[in-house]
Amino acid sequence: MNSKDKLWKKAVRDQQKRLKPNECQKYIRLVLDINFMSAEFGQYLLRTLRESLDLKYELRTLPVNQCVLWERSMGQLLLDPDEVKALSEEWQLEEHVARILKHGELKYLIRMNLLEKYSNELKTNFPGKQHIVLYMKPKDKPSHRETEALLELQILYQLKVHEVPDDVEELLKELQRLSKAIAEAPYKKQKNEPLSGFKRFLANDKKQCVQVEGCKGFGLLFQQHLNRLPLVTLEVAETIIEKYSCPKTLMEDFAYNPDAVKELAELKIKRSGPKALQTDRRIGEVLAGKLKLLYTTREPDALI
């Protein structure tokens, strides 16, 4: 193995290490708008950030007043055809952008009818990002119009509004929480990629899922599916599966047998326990009709 391969493998290990939950926060920094310097809480916030061991930050002139960005140190390995260069400290912009909204500014936006402009400033200058509003909520109960305005920002203008108590320490805690979530996002995404969507369901990655290996487990999966339906107990599901081993056989019977619903309704439910205590119960026409509608309808809004 030559020196280039060794350095490449070292870089891969370094990148994987940077993704781990205990390490990833070291490679995230805040980018603060330089207007924080003149904000009423700005000096105290910056001083607290300087004293913090968890958060790195950088002041920069940003296109939107009092906004916050996040950057990640990628530590990329640059491979030159002739030589291998060391790790570079390259910073990549994350997909989140937050903006501080004070109570007085919210009242001004309401009075001047500028909520849409406020939203557009974020969306125009940072397209394709996840836009967050950190609203510094006062202790006093908000007026009805203020509550409506915050809902408008969320529902009408599609901004995420996080209400934070009007205190610099609380704002710092919220920035720490967001930084931690953003830092850990790639690790969680990487962890979930091998088993995503339906594969994760089959792989028993979540509670009450069914392990399917090859052809084994499909019967139990069909049984669990039936158990999710109202009126279908474990005994009812086992009775249906004894006649129809999989959904395909049930659907084919509904499609080609005109008496399928009647035959399904007449199936006797197998009961556990002493025979003397058992009652003669059947699937019934109501459940049979619901199953036919479920497995044959092509109307997505059909009421089962």
Q: Any overview of this molecule?
A:
The chain has 304 residues and is of the alpha/beta class. It folds into 2 domains: 3-78 and 87-193, Rossmann fold (3-Layer(aba) Sandwich), CATH 3.40.50.10130; 206-296, DNA polymerase, domain 1, CATH 1.10.150. The protein is built from 12 helices and 8 strands. The strands form 2 sheets. The chain has a 6-stranded mixed beta sheet, with helices on both faces. Strands 4-5 form a two-stranded antiparallel ribbon. Helix 8 packs across helix 9 (234-243).
List the helices and strands and how they pair.
Layout: H1 3-19, E1 28-33, H2 42-51, E2 56-60, E3 67-73, E4 77-79, E5 84-87, E6 91-101, H3 103-111, H4 115-125, E7 130-137, H5 144-156, E8 160-165, H6 168-192, H7 197-202, H8 218-227, H9 234-243, H10 247-256, H11 260-265, H12 285-296
Parallel strand pairs: 1-2, 6-7, 7-8
Antiparallel strand pairs: 1-3, 3-6, 4-5
Helix pairs in contact: 8-9
